[in-house]
Write a structure and sequence with these properties.
By secondary structure, the protein is α/β, with parallel strands linked by helices. The chain has 17 helices and 15 strands. The protein has two domains: 177 residues, 3-Layer(aba) Sandwich (Rossmann fold), CATH 3.40.50; 233 residues, Rossmann fold.
Length: 413
């Protein structure tokens, strides 16, 4: 979020500085290299002049607007504000003139009160806090930042709203101007509603499995209702990523502390978690009842295509379940293998090429729907595999074509 915002605002003609506490990342960025995969970002960084530094003192005193874009992981249902409070303290210590400090990170409604208290202890300089949640998708982050559906500005004072309006004036999308607490709640509401749609779609897909209906047509027919829409009515092995799980958990926790049992969101999480077993059970039935000593080939590791992000990736949980059932794992991904090595503790035989991944495999799992995997030579794949079984975790492939070639195929719905 921070790096994409910096690149976009620099491209719009603003003078931009980026503070990053990891010196190695700063060196990479100064060389025009991005320490993670996001389509188009490296080109945009190289194209625009941006100051990269580890020093707050170098860029904060001259700043008119400061965006806080640090992570807020959830621990036991509570958003961890450690990074937010650390960064805002440092910002406060280096403020000089009238500055707008914008919280773009996802924080609990009302968190600005605590943030302001912490900052007031560190500075006598004039500043105003505002909230502008982001709604970008990894893999489409630049497009989403340049062409937002809406720009949410949560601020108490009109001059702050006006300043942030001017900063975003060339960007399209509806303007939602509200108080900071409402802006923060908008973010949580959006990030909880989308996984709810996914879990609902997957539940309908399971029902389609039971009754022999076609989930693709059922969900299309449902989504064409303008009140519902087709977006996020996609089925498969479940949602992952840095936001959905943590924000659903955070909203459940916040609700509980206010005396409200957010039962719908608990069911959303429970449904998502159950999909791993649902797919693995299908695989066991198709390979003769057990995966013990069988080789499972995984295509895709990242939580979604066009990113190297492994946070809450379904591959992590699928691998855990497969290992628990005695399977041996081979896996590949166009960009996420190195990141996967850092987060997956189980024994995995990582491969660069699809062919080596599926060689001798008893079952193939499509986990991440990279375009690289759409046009495989399935005749060749069948010759390489020990048994031609495909478990399609994203309903990515043409079932009829694979069955015609002699594959056993299972998706969902």
């Amino acid at each position: 979020m921070g790096l994409v915002s910096a690149a976009v605002f620099a491209g719009l003609g603003n003078e931009v500085g980026v503070i990053e506490v990891d010196g190695k990342k700063v060196e990479l960025l100064r060389q025009g290299r991005v320490p993670f995969f996001e389509p188009g970002l490296e080109k945009l960084i190289k194209k625009n002049k941006i100051t990269f530094t580890t020093s707050y003192r170098e860029v904060i005193p001259e700043a008119e607007v400061v965006f806080i874009c640090v992570g807020t992981p959830t621990i036991d249902g509570r958003p961890d504000l450690t990074a937010i409070l650390t960064s805002t303290r440092e910002v406060a210590r280096n403020l000089k003139g009238q500055t707008v400090v914008v919280i773009k990170s996802t924080v609990p409604p009302g968190a600005n009160k605590k943030i302001e208290e912490v900052m007031r202890l560190e500075t006598k300089a004039a500043f105003e806090l505002a909230s502008m949640p982001e709604f970008l998708r990894e893999g489409d982050a630049i497009e989403d930042t340049l062409k937002p559906d809406r720009v949410v500005i949560g601020a108490k004072k009109k001059w702050v709203v006006d300043k942030l309006m001017r900063l975003n004036e060339v960007l399209p999308g509806e303007r939602v101007v509200c108080d900071p607490v409402s802006a923060q709640m908008i973010k949580y509401a959006a990030n909880a509603f989308l996984p709810m749609k996914i879990s609902f779609a997957n539940s309908i897909a399971v029902m389609c499995d039971k009754f022999g209906a076609n989930a693709r047509e059922v969900l299309r027919g449902m989504g064409l209702d303008k009140r519902i829409g087709t977006a996020f009515l996609r089925v498969g092995i479940g949602y992952g990523g840095s936001c959905f799980h943590k924000d659903v958990q955070a909203l459940i926790g916040m609700a509980a502390r206010q005396g409200f049992d957010f039962k719908i969101l608990k069911a959303v999480e429970e449904t998502n978690e159950g999909l791993i077993s649902y797919f693995v059970n299908k695989a066991e039935r198709m390979v003769g009842g057990s995966l013990k000593r069988k080789t499972a080939a995984l295509l895709g590791l990242a939580f979604r295509p066009e990113t190297s992000d492994m946070r809450e990736a379904r591959s992590i949980y699928l691998i855990k379940e497969l290992v628990k059932r005695g399977a041996k794992i081979r896996a590949t991904d166009p960009v996420a293998v190195e990141e996967a090595r850092k987060v997956i503790k189980e024994q995995v035989n990582y491969q660069e090429r699809v062919e080596e991944t599926v060689r001798g495999a008893d079952v193939l799992f499509l986990v991440t729907e990279w375009e690289d995997y759409r046009r495989l030579d399935w005749v060749k794949m069948k010759g390489l595999m020990r048994t031609p079984v495909v478990i399609d975790g994203r309903n990515f492939y043409n079932e009829k074509e694979l069955k015609k070639l002699g594959f056993e195929y299972a998706g969902i719905g």
